[in-house]
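To close the section, here is one more complete example, presented without commentary so you can practise reading it yourself. The ligand is DQA.
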Amino acid sequence: MKLLVINGPNLNMLGIREPELYGKADYSALETLVRETCRAENIDVDIFQSNHEGAIVDAIQAARTRCDAIVINPAAYTHTSIAILDALKAAALPAVEVHISDISQREAFRHISYPGLACVKTIMGQGIDGYRQAILFLKEHLNRL
Ligand code: DQA
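Output:
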């Protein structure tokens, strides 16, 4: 199984930005969690972070023929990006949306997720452990197909 994990804008600032919302773990701790989970599950993983919407669209398009599944935290683009939604639909890979915080309990503008409309599952409010849960879910999901 080949997996792409995508993180959107400002997630490279984890541990520094609003730790009361996103926790104290930094981005490299998130990468370590993803890599260790994938190693234990025998999953080949690429991890990609960008602050640019078009770069995220490009990464999703490239994954279409190279990957079996996507974990994506589109960060602020969650609430605005029809381009990321359309890219996920075009790639047509099983995708899980992760949010470190519980966006359903935050400002009203965070309640809508466009990319989530193309995802098989959303995990929110679990901190960075949500990524581990998303990876395990996708492995099971692909086994069921
Ligand atoms: C986030 C939630 C978004 O609303 C926010 O813009 C982020 C991070 C999360 O992981 O909780 O940057 O996606």
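Once you have examined the tokens, check your reading against these statements. The two ends are 13 Å apart (CA to CA). Residues 10, 73, 75-76, 78, 99-101, 103, 110 surround DQA (CB under 6 Å).
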